[in-house]
Each structure stands twice: as C-alpha cells, then as structure tokens.
Design brief:
Rossmann fold, 6 helices, single chain, binds S-adenosylmethionine, two-stranded antiparallel ribbon
Amino acid sequence: MGEIDGGGARAPRRTVHEGDGVAWLAAAAPLPPDHAVVTSLPDHSELPELGVGGWRTFFEDVAASICGAVADEAVAIFYQTDVKHDGRWIDKAYLVERAAERAGSHLLWHRIVCRVPAGTITFGRPAYSHLLCFSRALRLAPAASSADVLPALGEMTWPRAMGRAACEAVAAFLLAHTGCRTVVDPFCGLGTMLAAANAAGLDAVGVERSPKRADRARRLRLEPGRRARLADREGSR
Ligand SMILES: C[S@@+](CC[C@H](N)C(=O)[O-])C[C@H]1O[C@@H](n2cnc3c(N)ncnc32)[C@H](O)[C@@H]1O
C-alpha cells in the first residue's frame, strides 16, 4: 500500500492504528477537509461493562464527536443495525440523528440495506441495516440521488462487519459527490470499509482496539470479482 505503481500513479494508502478510536479521534480532530468518517459504532453487546444506559450515552457522544470532527463540506457516514433489548427496539438511526443534530449536522441521505430478502421474518435483529450520511455544509443536488434501498448487504467478512456492497456504494458516493478522498474508520473491525475504499482508489485510516482485528484490517483485500482475502504480512500479495 502506498507505493508508486508501474504507471507512476500512487497506490491508495492504508494505515491501521491499534488502540482507542475515541481517543484517536479526539487527538486528530478537526480532520482535514478531504477526510470522511465512515464507521459502524460498537453495539452494546460489545461493551457490556457500560450497561445499556451507559452504552447509549457513549454511542450518542461518540456519534456527535464524529459529526463534529469532519470538516464543514465533508461527510460522516454511519452503518448501524438496530437491536432488540428487553422486548423493545433500540433504533440506532434515531440515536445517530440525535447526535448529528447536537453537532449541527444535517442528513444528506438515509439508505436501508436489506440483510435478508424483503418479507423475511427475523428475530432479535432486523431484516435491514441503516446507512446514514451527514454533513454540516454539503448539499446534494437532486441529480445526485441514488437508490435508497440496497437490496443486499453483499459479502460479510465477519458477523459484525459492514456489508461489502454497502461499503462499495459508500466509496462510489464519496468519489462522485464529495471532495473526500480519505476514509477514516475509528472502529474499523476487520477493515471492510478500509479495503473497499482502497479498491476504489481512496486512502484509508482505521483504528481498532483488538490487536487481532487490527492486524487483519491491515491485510484485508477486496478485489473485483473475487471473494475477500487476507494478504500476507509482508506486503500486498
Ligand atoms: C461493529 S464493529 C465494526 C465492524 C467493521 N465495520 C467491519 O466491517 O469489520 C465495532 C468494532 O469496534 C471495536 N471497538 C470497540 N470499542 C472500540 C474503541 N474504543 N476503539 C477502537 N475500536 C473499538 C470492536 O473491537 C469492533 O471490532
């Protein structure tokens, strides 16, 4: 990653930091104008020490700081899947929208990503995920409209992953409709969004607290027409 290819163009870069994405973001903010944040915040089941109430506060505070960290014309994009807890839904799109409002950001689009075919009855988790895009100053012309229901997630690198098709759609949106050319994911997991960004020619920066996942996020490759794979540790093979 980052080397000059045979034609003289620079190959897209990827940097993955092992550590706390919240602290990293606080130190990195404000982000440069060509940086977008695209992330999937941890579910309460990943942070049991907080309890559901504490997690909700954490979730909204972090979503607000992400919206506040991007430049005025840049975007913050969240991929979130609701959960049922104690017989009630926790609607994460609602939580992200509350946080965005606090940060002075506006919704540019809200896409629904089908996790299973429409009409399927699911239990505990919904049949869809939310993909929401916010900016403080960017506005999209009507011609920039695109499908707001993605019929399938695409390949999943692990059960908590962002779907590959959703990541590819986000990368295409950034290229076509924003000036953002670097994707930051402060909770990058296995790096699905980072690899999709690089495959589209965008640079990528990730943060992940799990050393094992951070290692895999450095090596994940998503190439057209091939299933996701891990490059060896030495380089790009
Ligand atoms: C929903 S998953 C992200 C999945 C990722 N989008 C993917 O496609 O693999 C959330 C990730 O955040 C990580 N995480 C949780 N708290 C964190 C923190 N404070 N700093 C960095 N990573 C954290 C978890 O280890 C988990 O890998």
